[in-house]
Amino acid sequence: MRFWKQILTTKKTRRELMLYVLVGVLGTGVDFGSFYLALQADTPVIVAQWVSAFLGFTHNHVWQHYGVFDHNQQFPKTYGFSLFIAIISISISGPALLLLHAFILNIWICKVLVAGTTFVVLFWIRKRWVFTHSDHI
């Protein structure tokens, strides 16, 4: 609950959230665009999901590291930790997409639901554990 209160009361956190959303929208374009292209190339849905999510992740992480979050961490450290988190997230997103698709026939609605859930969870994780201030850089 403290996290959500911080969003409502702290200007810096609101700014980070707004920039995170903007970067996320652009990253969604990368993710969905590459997903579409992969499907057009007859790539299996789960592989298309994993590849497109990884491309979207890399796009977003670069922007988050250099422009969104206020932190003092080195890029290799944040990228490595974020990549670890993303691999878990991407690994879960493929089966989640297939599971949703068993109940919702439109693959794009499933994609939006999976991407939206991931978006919210990853903002919280990155804000709390990845992009932090540390005396031990």
TrEMBL record:
The principal localisation class reads membrane
- Taxonomically, the superkingdom here is Bacteria
Q: Quick check: keyword Transmembrane helix in the entry?
A: yes
Which InterPro entries did the record assign?
GtrA_CellWall_Glycosyl (IPR051401), GtrA_DPMS_TM (IPR007267)
Example GO biological process: polysaccharide biosynthetic process
- Pfam families in the record: GtrA_DPMS_TM
Q: How does it sit in the membrane?
A: Multi-pass membrane protein
Q: Where is the GtrA/DPMS transmembrane domain?
A: 20-131
Q: Name one GO cellular component term.
A: plasma membrane
Query: What keywords are assigned to this protein?
Result: Membrane, Transmembrane, Transmembrane helix
Which residue ranges traverse the bilayer? 20-39, 78-97, 103-125
User: Where does it reside?
Assistant: Membrane
Q: Which family does it belong to?
A: Belongs to the GtrA family.
What is this protein called in UniProt?
GtrA/DPMS transmembrane domain-containing protein
